[in-house]
Specification:
With 136 residues, this protein is an alpha+beta fold. It has 4 helices and 6 strands; from the N terminus they run H-E-E-E-E-H-E-E-H-H. It has one domain (3-129): Aspartate Aminotransferase, domain 1, CATH 3.90.1150. The protein has a 6-stranded antiparallel sheet with strand order 1-2-3-4-6-5.
Length: 136
């Protein structure tokens, strides 16, 4: 496993109510948020290895998704996902290999934005159980 893969995985698992699942097989980690055992889990990220590093699928607001794709060549419409609401981020094996302005802080922000976008759509009860408060 690459350093980038392990760091992204750690960030994803750091969010409240998050767990890792492998419904598509052992090669694709799916990160879901669930407020309680009675709540339906919701996907906010997918992560898998590539020859050069890894790829990360993230939920994104449509207008922002378009701007990110125009700005960063590593960000493309979501692979095997709804292209309007999901982006794929192609990442190298190490953070030092990132280029064209994409950096670890931006990847972490995009991951957090995906989590927040999904949690914001959960019922109020679930948001309360997750102790989630929107940032402005």
């Amino acid at each position: 496993m690459t350093a980038v893969y392990e760091q992204v995985r750690a960030w994803a698992l750091s969010f409240t109510g998050t767990f890792e699942d492998f419904p598509f097989g052992p090669e694709t980690a799916v990160f879901k948020v669930q407020a309680s055992e009675h709540s339906k889990p919701k996907v906010f990220a997918l992560l898998w290895h590539t020859e050069a590093g890894c790829r990360l699928n993230l939920k994104c607001e449509p207008a922002l998704a378009e701007r990110l794709r125009e700005t960063y060549p590593q960000i493309t419409p979501g692979y095997h996902m709804n292209k309007k609401h999901w982006n794929s981020v192609t990442l190298p094996g190490t953070w030092e290999e990132l280029d064209a302005g994409l950096n670890a802080a931006l990847v972490q922000d995009l991951l957090e934005d995906s989590y927040d976008l999904v949690v914001s759509q959960l019922p109020r009860r679930d948001r309360h159980l997750l102790d989630w408060h929107p940032t402005t």
